[in-house]
Amino acid sequence: MQEWVQSFVPSLNGIKFVPLVLPVLAVECALEFRILRSTEREGNVADADNQIKALIDALKMPQNSDEIGKPEDYEGCNPLFTLAQDDRLITKISSISDEMLDLPVGWDEFDPKLCRIQIDVFIRPRLPTRENIIFFDDDSRVWDHRYDIGLLQSLAGMSADQLRAAVTQCIFRIQALAASLENTPYRDRSVESCEEETKRMMAESSTKATIWRTNLWPKAYALREELCRRIYGEPPYPQSSDDSVAIMHGMLAGVYPIASAANDLQRLLMRFI
Q: Is the dihedral of CA 125, 131, 133, 136 positive or negative?
């Protein structure tokens, strides 16, 4: 990591800043602030909006030398790890003001002019890549355009960024389902009769088809149609030899039909960018 930072991270006034949320990873983040104050408040207390603005400025990488102060201020923390390269990558902010019920470490008594702020950071991919799959999460408390029952009714009203995020979530879910279905335990077929093996394989195939058709296919198909509408205009849409039978008709035909459905969505997503 140290060698990578020294070689590839640009410096500003001799100070290297290493952000976690950056465009090359195709990720975005949401922030939740909980601002805690003592019950008895006296004097001027900064309003929450100004506090949060100052915090966001502190969490992002400086954009010019005027924002970083003196180089000696960074003694012992060079490189400095920051949250975001640019505050435009922070796509949702929410805050709650609450009562401070206990003294923070180092406080002898409540100071009405001070507050304690807890920050939760949620990171998710904007586009599916091998590098950012570790950030895949679908916490319904955080994201406005989350993957839920209301998705199908809200597609037309989504912004381009929201649609890309929803398609990315769907692609990762399809890939996870494909991996779980392909990693079946080893069976010694020599102890099965031909009839038993046929019944077992038919049962497994039926289970996979049920999972696919009831869980992911309706949403995957709707997302594909919305992508096509925005790329090509009104139907009929052009057909490709790469179109997945699984995503077009819900049929699990072929060697890796569910994985093919994810690839079909991903090809369209790349065209939509």
A: negative
